[in-house]
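task queued by scheduler; priority normal; single chain, no ligands, no partner chains; default sampling; output format set to structure tokens
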Amino acid sequence: MKTAALLNNADDQMDAVLGIVGPKSRIPVEQIARAIMRSPTLNNFVINNSQVGVLNTGSIDRIDAAITLSKGSDVEPIMDHIKSVVAAVIASENIENAEKNEIIDLADAAAEELVGRRRLPSIIAQVKAIREKIGGVLVLSDAVDKLLEAVRNGLT
């Protein structure tokens, strides 16, 4: 959240220096924070007690909040694919916990980008990095390929 707020501030300062006027694409920090603070309950994922200390639940909370924020928007179908990928990663027994956390962090960055600036190259790079991390886990490969296709078709 702090990074997103700093990015928004930097953009505002650059716009002021350059004299840029007009609609601005900013990361909705306040809405994301409200969605996170609303409830400690995850609306989109199931985390077992044995996973709480192992998985990065902060990133999962932010992904959950981004999915909730996207309801009814044009990125909701893409966020549904992110939800599928993250849920499959959480449930997978073929991926080590450290790699699960890396994948979840990448999904968090992609989700934040989708509800914020929507820079297609950045989102595609994050999804491709997820694909590399999952290796040969077939179920996850299919889910990530569907996500990548959804991003390419939904944001072009």
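post-processing summary
- The longest helix spans residues 97-115.
- Residues 2-154 form one domain.
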